Amino acid sequence: xxxxxxxxxxxxxxxxxxxxxxxxxxxxxxxxxxxxxxxxxxxxxxxxxxxxxxxxxxxxxxxxxxxxxxxxxxxxxxxxxxxxxxxxxxxxxxxxxxxxxxxxxxxxxxxxxxxxxxxxxxxxxxxxxxxxxxxxxxxxxxxxxxxxxxxxxxxxxxxxxxxxxxxxxxxxxxxxxxxxxxxxxxxxxxxxxxxxxxxxxxxxxxxxxxxxxxxxxxxxxxxxxxxxxxxxxxxxxxxxxxxxxxxxxxxxxxxxxxxxxxxxxxxxxxxxxxxxxxxxxxxxxxxxxxxxxxxxxxxxxxxxxxxxxxxxxxxxxxxxxxxxxxxxxxxxxxxx
Length: 336
Known about the structure:
Blueprint: E1 9-13, H1 18-28, E2 34-39, H2 42-52, E3 58-62, H3 68-74, E4 80-83, H4 90-95, H5 97-118, E5 122-128, H6 137-152, E6 159-165, E7 167-168, H7 176-183, E8 187-190, E9 196-200, H8 202-215, E10 221-224, E11 228-230, H9 231-246, E12 254-257, E13 269-271, H10 273-276, E14 280-281, E15 285-288, E16 302-303, E17 309-310, H11 319-329
Parallel strand pairs: 1-2, 1-4, 2-3, 4-5, 5-6, 6-10, 7-9, 8-12
Antiparallel strand pairs: 9-11, 10-15, 13-17, 14-15, 14-16
Helix pairs in contact: 1-8, 5-6, 7-9, 9-11
C-alpha cells in the first residue's frame, strides 16, 4: 500500500484513547512531518509520550473539543484529522445527557468548523452502530453528530467522512473489560444472553479509519463487515479463554442474568434499509456515499444488495471462532 502520511501534519482528537493511540502509532509508521495528539488527560499523554520514546515529530495538546478556541489553535498547519474524541459509555451518557451533548455534538461541530476554517484537506469522524435507530443518549448524540458531518462535507475545500464502529474488543466502551474484572469475583453479569453485537478488534478499527481517510471523497460513511456474537456466548468464551490461560476451573464462575439496562437494544444495526439503496460494497466494507452512483471512485466497489445490515441478520460466531477473535485482539492490559 502506498505511503499516505509521509511528510504530512496529522491531528488526532482523542489521541490517548483506545483507538487514538493506535492511530498515532499507525501514522508514525509512515514518517509524517508531525503528529499532534489532542486530549483532556495530561497523565495519559505522559504515558503515551513515554511509550513512544519522546519522538521529536509528536506534539501533545491538552484540551477539550468543547472549547472552540483550543480546537482552532490545535488545527494550525494540519493536513489530516482523525476525530475520535467522545463520551462513549452508554450509562454515563444516560446519566449525564447534557454533558454527552456538549462533547459528542458540540465537540464535533467545533472540529468540523475549525477544520474547514483552517483549510484541512480531510477529516474522518468515528461514529457508532448505536447511531442507527438510537434508543439511548449516546446513540442519539452520535446520530446528530453524523448529520452535522454529512451536511458539512464539500464546503471550504475540506473532505469530511465518517466510519461506523461496532463494539471494539478491549476498548473502554466494550463489555469485555467488565467481564474480565468480574472474573475475580467468581461471577459474570449478562443482561440478556440472546443479545447480539457486532465485534471488531482495535486493529480492524484502526485499519478501517485509515482506509476511510485514504478513500474519502467527502460525505461518505464507511462500515466494516464484521462478525457478530451473542452476549451469552461471549461471556462463556471469556471465562473459558481466561481459565485456559490462568489455570482455574471455568465451572467455578457463574453467569448471572440481570436483565436489559435502560437504552439497550437486543441487536445493533450498521446500515439502514434506506442507506443500502445507494450503498456500495467491497470485499471487506460497505461505503454509503452522499448520493447514488460512483462505483468507479472506490477500488473494487460494486452496488450493495438492498437490506438492513443488522446483527440480527448475521450468523453469530461459534465457540471456537469467538476464542480466536479474543486471542487476536491482543493488547488487553496496556495501562492506558
